[in-house]
Amino acid sequence: MRLRDLDPLSEAEITLVAERMGATLVEVEGQELYDLDWRIARVRWHLEAANVEARVVLGIDEGGAIVGHTILRVELGLGLVSTSYVIPQARRQGFAAAFLQDAEAWFRARQLPLTATWTSSTNEPLIALYGRHGFAEDQRGPNDFTGTMMVRLAKRLSA
Ligand SMILES: CC(C)(COP(=O)(O)OP(=O)(O)OC[C@H]1O[C@@H](n2cnc3c(N)ncnc32)[C@H](O)[C@@H]1OP(=O)(O)O)[C@@H](O)C(=O)NCCC(=O)NCCS
């Protein structure tokens, strides 16, 4: 297993991540919400330093296949894990845990005081994963578009 940043010149990698963002929404919220072009634009937005300080990180298996991704960004002074996804066949192998460790290291290097992510209150795998890494729910509220109850899982990085 290894992690690397998405190649911003690779249409294929950008499209793959955008497709899997759609798969995440279907799996977690039961609907896609945005079309593929919107999601491709959203991935690209994260790759432009003029927009945001962010990274799109890929998980690569032993055979070289891209089996997962995570998107990190600095937002309102905190380190936000915007999304994580691992294909079903590659789950429970530690990819998401590796993404989280990589994210924390990157946020700490930026001296951000807090890291957090938002997910559905019913997303037990993700809540279990973050709980193991020292995150706890500190906010909740409905998604404006879907009505899904969302929780914020947060962890203080400063002493
Ligand atoms: C949540 C998700 C990213 C986890 O990816 P993963 O690579 O399988 O996770 P890991 O192998 O790193 O799991 C690490 C730990 O997290 C917890 N965990 C992960 N999946 C779990 C599950 N299905 N049930 C319970 N705990 C789970 C466990 O503590 C696990 O450790 P263990 O395997 O030693 O028990 C993956 O299931 C996924 O892509 N889900 C759909 C998309 C999604 O929910 N994304 C987040 C939206 S905000």
Description of the molecule:
This protein has 159 residues and is α+β, with helices and mostly antiparallel strands. It has one domain: Gcn5-related N-acetyltransferase (GNAT) (Aminopeptidase), CATH 3.40.630. The protein has four helices and seven strands; from the N terminus they run βααβββαβαββ. The chain has a seven-stranded mixed beta sheet, with helices on both faces. The termini are far apart. The model has no long low-confidence stretch (mean pLDDT 95). The structure holds coenzyme A. Residues 24, 27-28, 83-86, 91-97, 119, 123-126, 128-129, 132 line the site of coenzyme A (COA).
In short:
With 159 residues, the protein is α+β, with helices and mostly antiparallel strands. The protein has helices at residues 11-29, 36-46, 95-109, 124-132; strands at residues 2-5, 54-60, 66-75, 78-86, 114-120, 136-142, 149-156.
Helical stretch tally: 4
- Widest sheet, order of strands: 1-2-3-4-5-7-6
Mean residue pLDDT? 95
Radius of gyration using CA atoms only? 15 Å
Which regions are unreliable across 5 or more consecutive residues at pLDDT < 50?
none
**Which CATH first-tier class would you pick?**
Alpha Beta
Bound compounds, each kind once, are:
coenzyme A
CATH superfamily: Gcn5-related N-acetyltransferase (GNAT)
Share of helix, binned: 25-40%
Query: What is the structural class?
Result: alpha+beta
- Strand tally is 7
Task: Note the run of SSEs as H and E.
Answer: EHHEEEHEHEE
Profile the largest sheet.
7 strands, mixed
What fold name stands as the CATH topology? Aminopeptidase
Any idea how many domains?
1
Strand content: 25-35%
CATH architecture: 3-Layer(aba) Sandwich
